[in-house]
Specification:
The chain is of the alpha/beta class. It is about 45% helix and about 20% strand.
């Protein structure tokens, strides 16, 4: 079994234990679907009561699962009932605390994500920094570096 498969199996077991234990028979209520507007508008990813999660490595996944297991019973119930949701981020800070962007436009939103994660931005050869993103980075104190 590869390391990745072992991590996935551990995740399945931990989630099963976390969600089944306090709920009696192990029946997990269905999470309500997102509002129709969020489905039809691509920019409407931010949901009230949602936590933004950045997962890029197996270590990030392990940390997230362990943080779920350490939550209070009230928070676990909110997760089960759909009052607390998680949104998945594009790319997480890699080792060294850098948000690496290989190509495309780096916008204010990406700068805000980096600031929230306490990371610097590492621009690849195909990445372009918008003027507004540059100003936002200065205002938030986010370092921007170009790859050699």
């Amino acid at each position: 079994m590869s390391e990745r498969e072992a991590a996935r199996e551990m995740l399945r077991e931990l989630l099963h234990e976390a969600l089944a234990a306090p709920n009696g028979g192990g029946v997990v209520p269905q999470v309500p679907p997102p509002p129709v507007a969020a489905i039809h508008r691509p920019g409407a990813r931010e949901v009230a009561g949602a936590e933004h999660v950045l997962l890029a490595t197996d270590a990030d996944l392990d940390h997230f699962v362990r943080s779920l297991l350490a939550r209070s019973p009230e928070e676990l119930e909110a997760i089960r009932a759909g009052r607390l949701r998680f949104t998945l981020g594009g790319s997480a800070p890699a080792d060294g605390g850098a948000l690496r962007i290989a190509r495309g436009a780096v916008t204010e939103r990406k700068v805000q994500e980096a600031a929230k994660a306490g990371a610097r931005i590492l621009l690849g050869r195909g990445a372009v920094l918008t003027p507004l993103a540059r100003e936002k980075a200065r205002a938030l104190g986010v370092q921007i570096e170009r790859e050699g």
